[in-house]
């Protein structure tokens, strides 16, 4: 029976390697499928966009949105960060706020474009409805933004959400990226996979959140 497992493992590694090869050989490997409408540049003199990233806690930007931020910066867009709480559950609010500024330095986002709210009644917290890790504050950010978009009602605000993936998809790496890009290019709701162009910078940004290295 051992040979069946070895054959399956070899097949999985081969699929993984083929998927990685396909991603790296695509014309724009940082965003799949290529030629996207995702945050396309404006026309005219001013081509860059102002993009507001709404997160629940300091460290969400590094842990979940690093490939997105790096992609947007590589396209020359102006990224702003609105963090809906200091993440003060363990009394580390001020430390975590400072760590967020350091992480944003790594992403070359100016400090004046980083806003941290700490409103007792505003613990509402742009994730999808599952919030990636299932954290209720991540889910609240999603619902808060949906409510805002619904009430705004003018349809002039573009909003995107970070899709939560199951464990298998999360850890199948290039295989998932490649298969997802084939499936979603034909779907009605546009979905793009942003491939991390600089994993070392994500790591550095996450290092800035030293108080959260608790696992
Ligand atoms: Zn979080």
Automatic annotation (TrEMBL):
<dbReference type="InterPro" id="IPR003737">
    <property type="entry name" value="GlcNAc_PI_deacetylase-related"/>
</dbReference>
<dbReference type="GO" id="GO:0000225">
    <property type="term" value="F:N-acetylglucosaminylphosphatidylinositol deacetylase activity"/>
</dbReference>
<keyword id="KW-0732">Signal</keyword>
<dbReference type="InterPro" id="IPR024078">
    <property type="entry name" value="LmbE-like_dom_sf"/>
</dbReference>
<dbReference type="GO" id="GO:0005783">
    <property type="term" value="C:endoplasmic reticulum"/>
</dbReference>
<protein>
    <recommendedName>
        <fullName>N-acetylglucosaminylphosphatidylinositol deacetylase</fullName>
        <ecNumber>3.5.1.89</ecNumber>
    </recommendedName>
</protein>
<dbReference type="Pfam" id="PF02585">
    <property type="entry name" value="PIG-L"/>
</dbReference>
<comment type="similarity">
    <text>Belongs to the PIGL family.</text>
</comment>
<feature type="signal peptide">
    <location>
        <begin position="1"/>
        <end position="21"/>
    </location>
</feature>
